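Example 9 (inverse folding). The structure is encoded as follows.
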């Protein structure tokens, strides 16, 4: 009787014919890995040691790829927004609003349109797959110009580069009734930030301060995104006021312990 032959890679079926299934599965897995590594530029060893994509991307050059993808997303946002604006008959108002923003802050036309799309709901409308129940708005050019003028000539006195950074960080807060947002945010701000000069320092540090128009006073009102309390730690970088040792002197706002934590505890 002939010796029974075995294969290292293949098993045998009942009919004595070698199975190709393990080879097919192995080839498919290798091909998938090669394609994934090529597309994402992630080192193969990152899978072996269990590193996350976010961690390995800093070493593998994934950041430029993500930036390229972000530009593609912006291009899609602009294209979709322009289609919607044209369908709404708002092309003239849209172009005038874009021109006003370019003049006020030195932004590129595409940047200006991107921020307008985010401020007036077009980006949300596109994210909802152009849902009929959500209605984006067209900018009122006169109101937009007044808003930009107030940001430059009002108590904030933003320079073009500061205005550009602020609008990029929070388009809706700065392009739609910024004076009202400013007055509300200032009124409910912690006591040490209610002086316009101190408030301006916060705005220049983090423009999203203008979104903080609510104060829960330590009893959560489920409006954390616009509440001062959860934002203070990031804004001041200080420790909680209650964590100070007895007799320790308070420090200026932004330099150490924010007094507001003590009053809100």
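The amino acid assigned to each position is listed next.
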């Amino acid at each position: 009787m002939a010796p029974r032959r075995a294969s290292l890679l293949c098993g045998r079926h009942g009919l004595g014919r070698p199975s190709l299934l393990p080879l097919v599965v192995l080839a498919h897995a290798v091909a998938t890995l090669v394609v994934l590594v090529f597309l994402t530029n992630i080192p193969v060893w990152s899978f072996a040691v269990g590193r996350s994509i976010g961690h390995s991307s800093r070493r593998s050059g994934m950041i430029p790829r993500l930036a390229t993808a972000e530009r593609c997303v912006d291009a899609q946002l602009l294209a979709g927004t322009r289609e919607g604006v044209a369908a709404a008959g708002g092309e003239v108002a849209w172009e005038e609003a874009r021109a006003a923003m370019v003049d006020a802050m030195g932004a590129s036309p595409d940047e200006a349109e991107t921020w307008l799309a985010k401020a007036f709901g077009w980006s949300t409308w596109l994210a909802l797959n152009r849902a009929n129940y959500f209605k984006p708005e067209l900018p009122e050019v006169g109101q937009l110009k007044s808003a930009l003028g107030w940001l430059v000539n009002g108590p904030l006195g933003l320079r073009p580069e500061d205005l550009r950074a602020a609008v990029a960080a929070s388009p809706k807060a700065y392009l739609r009734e910024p004076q009202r947002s400013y007055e509300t945010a200032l009124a409910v701000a912690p006591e040490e930030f209610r002086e316009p000069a101190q408030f301006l320092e916060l705005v220049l540090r983090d423009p999203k301060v203008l979104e903080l128009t609510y104060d829960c006073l330590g009893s959560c009102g489920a409006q954390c995104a616009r509440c001062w309390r959860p934002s203070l730690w990031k804004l001041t970088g200080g420790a909680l006021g209650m964590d100070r040792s007895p007799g320790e002197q308070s420090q200026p706002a932004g330099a150490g312990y924010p007094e507001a934590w003590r009053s809100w505890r």
